[in-house]
Recover the amino acids of this structure.
């Protein structure tokens, strides 16, 4: 009996030990996992002295939005020897932060970064440099002679402490797009000042109700109208400092103008990208202030406005203002990963997509930031026969008039406007009445990104 | 020795002895696969989050600093308000409608009709979470919606008007109910079928109509199922994320941005590069879920034997 009891006891003990071992193993696994993850937690790379990783070559991974997909495809066609993995993503449009989200995950797992990325936003350098994602381009990767070809100031959003961290794809200077045959038919003059623009809006409301002089429903409404009006809502004064003043005279004069036109229904309140605008308003556009890419992307491709109608004029200015100013909507930037194991091919691709006549001059829908390609692009626009008259003059003039008082912070002005002002506009509030809310929202978001905010 | 012991015992005892040393071996086997997944995708991430919540970016102990940072954020209180309002709409409509529909379904005499209804209720649940929300993005846009006449009758002519901030709790409730309630109706129906027909028969003989039977017999007997549903729905509701996040992208940021606590956590992690504060918010959600589940379980006698 004793022996039997011992045997049973031993079995019980063994069983208990096994269970304990299992538990210990489980706890160890959890701790190991936590430790492993914890170690991968700090993702910031070298910021000043750029140390390339071991160059092992291999596949070149590029991320582009659907509009820039032809750029990557053309490069692949012209360079069949380069192995490429072309990935399309949303291009961070409307401040979606997709790229930042992914890079922050890749920094944790320490792998997966794309070699070259296109972003439709100009503010990527503001976080990507801190995250150690972007490689410095003017320290040997791209020759200075090439870099000198960009339009003056075009690469300013990419400069951090004098080092260039991205290349501008296109300029997105704003002009006044208008329907030339319609203007002529109705006997209207293209407005030269905002006052004339507003007056024409009033006339249009009574003479041809239903037609539009623009829309205030886009996320980039502040960039088209308020930026052009020199509204100081986004003065980036340092790497972590911003000056926000949305209630100055420069802001309120433009907000009041928009309000009056929204009220008489000549200014739409939905986005040019919305199904609603496409269906109900696309063929009712008499005028529309907008960036250079509106001509190709919006009128030609999205609205399918027939050839021979759309023309460009310089953006109206405020009467008595001697320093003409225009806004800017995106333009996009190309970033090169500091983690690329194939810097040679990556730099070659980057140079090609941002400077080549084959893409920038002949295919790109937007006005190329690289000046020689811009010449080809303008010549192609003129010879395409799509536009009524020559759009070269207004676009070239506007390229040098983008008001420099609007910067590129880490927070997305487009996302802030969309969440703060657009719902109110839809609900019938005036923009003037929402300017203080806008001020507060910009301040809050800037602070949450660590910015020092002053007014 | 053991041979002697065995022979001394009555027949059939060896198997009984094996069962005594490791009772329910088959059960362990069934649960094992689940336990592995639970550890990998439940326990490890939870421990990981708790670790993050109490440390800073340099892996040093941070006390409650991350919780203070989260509570001090300008989006925090409004996110709590949004989630609370959504929970009220969601839980009330879920409990009332699911129980109501299950009772009606149970009353349907025709087996064919009942089967078809159960199938219809269940279909939306068969779509994966994000996909079923995508369906709603089309339904809610008057320009492309198959029910645009309804939206127009309600006075909405653009997507922007439909997704006005004041409408969001109702819209999210609609989406969540459509995607999640069908499965619960089928579960409640099963539970109703478990109620002894004798009991219902007795009630009928005593003169109870459909209403009294439901109120005094069926619903009290469903109590545990209702509590179970409420616990899971509460936990799911506090973690509201997919609906506002997708809506935010569909409306290009006009509606649903920074709406829920989970979105705020996501923003902290991926926009502000602050995983620790993000983890603090998820730990808060975990604690709230556990506490509420505890209260519900204790109050309802959830684990009491019948």
């Amino acid at each position: 009996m004793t022996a039997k009891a011992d045997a049973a006891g031993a079995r019980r003990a063994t069983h208990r030990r096994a269970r304990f071992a299992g538990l210990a193993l489980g706890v160890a696994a959890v701790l190991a996992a936590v430790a492993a993850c914890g170690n991968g937690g700090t993702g910031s790379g070298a910021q000043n002295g750029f140390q390339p990783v071991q160059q092992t070559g291999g596949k070149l991974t590029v991320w582009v939005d659907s509009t820039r997909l032809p750029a990557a495809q053309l490069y692949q066609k012209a360079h069949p020897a380069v192995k490429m993995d072309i990935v399309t993503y949303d291009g961070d449009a409307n401040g979606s932060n997709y790229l930042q989200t992914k890079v922050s995950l890749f920094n944790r797992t320490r792998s997966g970064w794309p070699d070259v990325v296109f972003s439709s936003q100009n503010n990527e350098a503001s976080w990507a440099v801190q995250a150690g994602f972007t490689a410095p381009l003017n320290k040997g990767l791209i020759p200075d002679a090439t870099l000198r070809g960009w339009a003056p100031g075009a690469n300013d959003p990419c400069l951090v402490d004098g080092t260039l961290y991205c290349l501008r794809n296109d300029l997105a200077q704003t002009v006044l797009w208008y329907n030339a045959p319609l203007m002529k038919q109705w006997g209207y003059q293209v407005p030269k000042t905002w006052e004339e623009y507003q007056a024409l809006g009033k006339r249009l409301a009574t003479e041809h109700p239903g037609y539009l002089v623009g829309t205030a429903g886009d996320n980039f409404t502040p960039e088209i109208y308020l930026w052009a009006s020199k509204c100081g809502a986004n003065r980036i004064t340092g790497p972590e400092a911003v000056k926000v003043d949305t209630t100055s005279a420069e802001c309120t004069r433009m907000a009041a103008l928009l309000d009056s036109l929204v009220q008489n229904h000549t200014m739409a309140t939905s986005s040019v990208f919305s199904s609603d605008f496409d269906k109900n308003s696309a063929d009712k556009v008499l005028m529309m202030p907008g960036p250079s890419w509106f001509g190709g992307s919006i009128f030609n491709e999205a609205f399918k406005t027939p050839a021979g109608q759309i023309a460009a004029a310089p953006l109206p200015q405020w009467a008595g203002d001697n320093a003409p100013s225009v806004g800017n909507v995106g333009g996009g930037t190309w970033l090169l990963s500091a983690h690329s194991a194939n810097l040679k091919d990556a730099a070659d691709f980057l140079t090609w997509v941002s400077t080549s006549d084959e893409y920038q001059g002949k295919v790109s829908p937007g006005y190329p930031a690289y000046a020689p390609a811009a010449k080809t692009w303008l010549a192609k626009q003129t010879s395409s026969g799509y536009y009524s008259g020559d759009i070269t003059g207004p676009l070239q003039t506007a390229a040098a008039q983008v008001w420099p008082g609007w910067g590129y912070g880490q927070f997305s002005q487009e996302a802030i406007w969309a969440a703060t002002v657009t719902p109110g506009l839809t609900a019938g509030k005036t923009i003037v009445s929402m300017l203080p809310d806008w001020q507060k929202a910009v301040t809050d978001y800037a602070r949450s990104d660590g910015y020092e905010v002053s007014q | 020795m053991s041979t002697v012991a065995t022979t001394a015992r009555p027949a059939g005892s060896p198997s009984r002895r094996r069962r005594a040393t490791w009772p329910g071996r088959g059960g362990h086997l069934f649960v094992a696969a689940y336990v592995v997944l639970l550890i990998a995708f439940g326990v490890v991430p939870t421990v990981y989050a708790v670790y993050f919540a109490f440390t800073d970016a340099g892996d040093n102990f941070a006390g409650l600093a991350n919780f203070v940072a989260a509570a001090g954020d300008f989006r925090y209180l409004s996110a709590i308000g949004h989630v609370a309002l959504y929970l009220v709409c969601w839980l009330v409509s879920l409990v009332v409608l699911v129980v109501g529909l299950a009772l009606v379904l149970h009353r349907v005499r025709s087996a064919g009709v009942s089967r078809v209804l159960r199938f219809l209720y269940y279909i939306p649940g068969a779509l994966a979470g994000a996909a079923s929300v995508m369906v709603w993005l089309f339904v809610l846009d008057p320009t492309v919606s198959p029910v645009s006449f309804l939206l127009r009758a309600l006075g909405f002519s653009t997507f922007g008007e439909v997704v006005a901030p004041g409408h969001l709790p109702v819209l999210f409730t609609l989406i969540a109910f459509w995607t999640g309630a069908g499965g619960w109706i089928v579960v409640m129906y099963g539970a109703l079928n478990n109620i002894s027909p004798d009991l219902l028969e007795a009630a009928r003989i005593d003169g109870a109509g459909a209403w009294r039977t439901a109120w005094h017999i069926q619903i009290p007997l469903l109590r545990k199922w209702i509590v179970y549903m409420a616990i899971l729905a509460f936990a799911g509701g506090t973690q509201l994320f997919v609906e506002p996040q997708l809506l935010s992208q569909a409306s290009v940021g006009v509606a649903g941005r920074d709406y829920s606590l989970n979105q705020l956590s996501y923003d902290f992690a991926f926009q502000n590069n602050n995983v620790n504060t993000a983890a603090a918010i998820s730990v808060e959600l975990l604690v709230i879920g556990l506490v509420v589940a505890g209260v519900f379980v204790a109050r309802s006698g959830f684990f009491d034997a019948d």
